Amino acid sequence: MGVIFDHIDLWAVALRNTLLLFFAGGGIALVLGLIVGAMRVSPVPIARGFGTVYVNLIRNTPLTLVFFAFAFGYPQLLPSPGYTVLAIWALGIYTATYVAEVVRAGVNTVPVGQAEAARAIGLTFGQVMTLVILPQAVRSVVPPMMSVFIALLKNTTVAAGFSVLELGSVRAYLSERGENALIVLLWVAVIFVVLVLILSFVQRRLENAWRIAR
Amino acid sequence: MTSVLYDVPGPRAILRNRIIGAITILVILGLLAFTVYRFASTGQFSAAKWYVFSFASVWEGIATALGATLAAFGAAAVGSLILGFILAIGRLSDHAAVRVPVAWITEIFRAVPVLVFMMLLFYGLPYVGVRMPPYWAVVIALVVYNGSVLAEALRAGVESLPRGQREAAYAVGLRKSGVMRLVLLPQAVRAMLPVIVAQLVVTLKDTALGFIITYPELLYYAKLLMGQSGRPIIPSIIVIGSIYIAMCLLLSWFARWLEKRTRRSPKIPPNVTRADVATHDITQTQLIATQNTGYDPSKPSRR
């Protein structure tokens, strides 16, 4: 425990930044992912096309490369808002593709009869989506969505390659202070196991609470 | 692929869809045009920025780096498949003494980020006197992480098989190992093939983490290129990015092809391939839609 308490200042900043990357990146991913997911099930062929291109391009790019583009490429084009903000955008844009896929799969799990019945009583597309399909889709989407966020949490460590102080890069800072890298990294691993266990617990709770009887 | 959420559009809906389509195009073209404009105005398309790519030695370097990426990917893919089978069989064991520890190991392996595991092997192990080359740190970390993910997929595959399969296998006199080896695992592997290949795409992408622990793969070489004269940062990202996207698209395409083939097979009950909402696209909605009405939801027709 000495490694943690002797350098509690660094660990606190690292943990805070990891959580910042997680929540801010997750927020961007949710908003963007919902838009792209909606595009992919929309009746407009062009919107579907763009959604597909976006998902396929970004999903097949390593996250590290997305980080690369943001950390080194972006400052070439526009003034840089700082590595942490860029890392948040990289995480958000990458994770949004997974959110979009989960949203699309969730919409597709709603039985066809639901949409047909809703249309039969005269609801418009907007009403079918907001009143009938989405409330059901959201429930079936919870477990895979939480898996996406667990992956996002682990992916925050990639920011270590791009000089953002978070749990993945805390080793580099502590090595300068002469700490044993093995012990530091083991603690990092333990923290991640705990954080992931918390998320899995939330996932199970939501899954049980929101299960649909069909 | 969409579900049957909307009617065949009438004249007004067609008009509205066209307007929304036009707006979408305008917004996206606007974003693209702005990016290209910034690229052009900061000289990213100038000959000086692309100069390095006119050298054969640079392309040789890219080829070497690509080789390093593929070497790590190949070893990690084979290793994680082997580990995945071992862990899956362990988790399905009848003996709690085997099942419980294996379950814990799998959960912990999945919870630790790949990069942290790589750093643990590369920066951590020297403190106990083991010096590990970056190649092995990358491969072992990928094997451990993806192996435990694959183990979960295989276990889900076995557990989603109808109980009758196992019972019938015991009834014809097979032993436990035979039931697993000859009856359950082959079916689980076939049902889970798309998931397995999708995980291999993840493995391929994750080799790019190797550059953080100085493994000389594609991204590491991209960073080297960026330091060359003219600082071709955007060109390097474009070139290396295209290589990654091409490789992953090939693998993804292979996964989709496999999925289509296995779905056609009458030997697999349809409920097995729907084990995971996130990774499987076909749904009851679509199945019913295509079977009952002869209406292909992926092509909204303009009847």
Describe this entry's structure for a reader:
The complex is a heterodimer of chains A (214) and B (303). Chain A has 214 residues and is mostly helical. Helices cover 80% and strands 0% of the residues of chain A. Chain A has 9 helices and no strands. Chain A has helices at residues 2-6, 8-41, 45-59, 63-77, 83-109, 112-120, 125-155, 170-176, 181-209. The longest helix of chain A has 34 residues, at 8-41. The mean pLDDT of chain A is 85. Chain B is mainly α and 303 residues long. Chain B has helices at residues 11-41, 47-50, 56-91, 96-111, 114-124, 134-159, 163-171, 176-206, 218-226, 233-264, 284-293. Chain B is flat and about 75 Å long. The interface between A and B is large, with 74 and 71 residues.
Q: What descriptive keywords fit this protein?
A:
heterodimer, A: 214 residues, mainly alpha, 80% helix, flat, B: 303 residues
